Amino acid sequence: GAMSPKVIALLAGTAQTMSIDPPGSEPDMTLPEIKENVASILGDKVATKSKRKKRLGNPKKAAGYEYDTDRVYTFHTYDDAMDYGRGTMHMPVYGEYDIKPYIGRQPLSLTAVTRGGDILYDLRVWHESLCQ
Predict the structure, then answer these.
(1) Which of 48, 86, 93, 112 has a CA that sits 20 to 30 A from residue 74's CA?
(2) What CA–CA distance (Å, rounded) separates 35 from 38?
(3) Using an 8 Å Cβ cutoff, are 93 and 81 in contact?
(4) Residues in the chain with pLDDT < 70?
């Protein structure tokens, strides 16, 4: 229905780098980049960044993987298409596209939800001009 959650991007398939570690051994999140570290847990089919993005970016293939809650998952991701500060999206050929008139007073939502409906995180981003 209209209120059903939608997957727009699978985080494990879109993150620039990803690391899976035992608690206490995770990478320093304050560094500008983290080292790719998934092969020892997820296997050779996702041993490189490009293999991981291709395989885990495909919903049918990604469905064969589960998050191990005994490990710490660190994702390094950025969005080169969206400029949250300006409220614009960069579209090839077209250029900068102002999305604020189309989202109204709604925030952009970055959310992770389990299959059971539990919310892992829900980050909401408002453009300053929409809060006045």
Answers:
(1) 86
(2) 10
(3) no
(4) 1-9, 130-132
